[in-house]
Amino acid sequence: MASESTLRFGAQTDEVTSLLRIVNMVRTGEASTRPEIGRLTGLGRGVVTQRVDQAIAMGFLEDGEFGPSSGGRAPRTLRFRSNAGRIVVAALGALHFHIGIAHLDGDVVDQKHQQWDIARGPADTLDEVLAAVDELLDRTGDAPVWAVAVGVPGPVDFTTGRPVAPPIMPGWNGFDVRRRFEQHLNAPTWVDNDVNLLALGERARRGAHDTNLIFCKIGSGIGAGLLSQGHLHRGTNGAAGDIGHVRVRDSNAACRCGKVGCLEAVAGGWAMVRDAEQRVADGASGRLALEEQPLSPEIIAKHAEHGDALSIALVQESAHVVGEAIATLVNVFNPGVIVIGGAVASAGEIYLAEVRQRVYELSLPLATRDLTIAQSHNDPAEPVRGGAELAREQLFEVTFPRWFADGRPTIDAVRGAS
């Protein structure tokens, strides 16, 4: 058997490699019995038994029920101990946050949604978020927290977990979000752009881990999460997919980022509210003009669905410009699926039809030959499910060799500290 130091510091001996593979085979459902493991790995029966017994002793696996017999003795199934730990997800939006607790298999067991203005700054925001996390942890058992995933509505340096000049998050630039969560929950934390969590949530919902997919979020701001063969493409510094700040031709609209002519300043939710208020002030009529609540992207989308002419015009204008930007992504990235989500896109087919038309008009025929453009299911649990996917991927596919000898992840082991 490999020494504890060999296991702990990740030297990839044959034993370590096969043990990690067996745990992940059971975890992902690739194999569920010892004979299946032997057939898929080529390992002998005695070696499989030894590795499985070790995984059980370390707390990763457990015996389940007896499986179907193929003529001889029925094999006992194996299960991944998904309830051995919990994953905390905090998905922060511009005007709300969504908190969730998931088991290690990604199953969301509890969640909470709360209105909140992220412009109130990191100190107040994270105090409120962590209080909500504590509330959910208190009512979801006593299993330890194994990982935390945080989504924020702005560019993130994924390596450090720090937002970088986020236009709609004043006071957050360079703030150590990861450290704040790790200090409070004593668990390794990953921070990413919120739309990347949505892209991973869509991957989990579809069960397609080899897909080329773009998730475009058209909410208060605009962003895209890029999946290449099922893996997130973040770029060198985490800025990939930030299409909200590409330049729109012939536009001089001032953007919150300080530049002019950005896609978000022309077609984002806050820009639609700005334009709606201006047109109502200029005398436009209809249901939107009679709205008693402060205007929001959700309210505009709702009135568009109910036939309000001004709302429909605003939605279609946004979709027209967004469709041009997506067409460029289609030509460059050649995805198989584009999913449109967010508050503005909740207008449904009114928005989607305009996007489709522009994409097919402006993209190469080969790039659109097998392309599907669909609306997000708008499931409130999607960012929580996506955050759990992010945490599970980082735990079991990226950092597993660094910490598995401890039986559960620690911050130092995940970060590679000695």
Features:
five-stranded mixed sheet, 3 domains, Nucleotidyltransferase, domain 5, alpha/beta, Arc Repressor Mutant, subunit A, 17 helices, 418 residues
Count of DSSP H/I helices: 17
Q: What spatial order of strands do you see in the largest sheet?
A: 5-4-3-6-9
Report the biggest beta sheet as strand number plus sense, adding barrel if it closes: 5 strands, mixed
Q: State which percent range the strand residues make up.
A: 15-25%
Find the CATH topology of the largest domain. Answer: Nucleotidyltransferase, domain 5
- Count all strands and give the number: 14
Q: Gap between N and C termini, in Å? A: 22 Å
- The level of helicity is 40-55%
| The level-1 CATH class of the largest domain | Alpha Beta
Name the CATH superfamily assignment of the largest domain: ATPase, nucleotide binding domain
Protein structure class: alpha/beta
State the CATH architecture of the largest domain: 2-Layer Sandwich
> What is the mean pLDDT?
92
Q: What would the principal axes of the Cα set say about the shape?
A: globular
Structure description:
The protein folds into three domains: 71 residues, Arc Repressor Mutant, subunit A, CATH 1.10.10.10; 150 residues, ATPase, nucleotide binding domain (Nucleotidyltransferase, domain 5); 168 residues, ATPase, nucleotide binding domain (Nucleotidyltransferase, domain 5, 2-Layer Sandwich). It contains 17 helices and 14 strands. Helix 2 crosses helix 4, helix 11 packs across helix 12 and helix 12 runs parallel beside helix 13. Helix content is 43%, strand content 18%. The N terminus is likely disordered. The protein has 418 residues and is α/β, with parallel strands linked by helices. It starts with a helix and ends with a helix. The strands form four sheets. Strands 5-4-3-6-9 form a five-stranded mixed beta sheet, sandwiched between helices. The chain has a five-stranded mixed beta sheet with strand order 12-11-10-13-14, with helices on both faces.
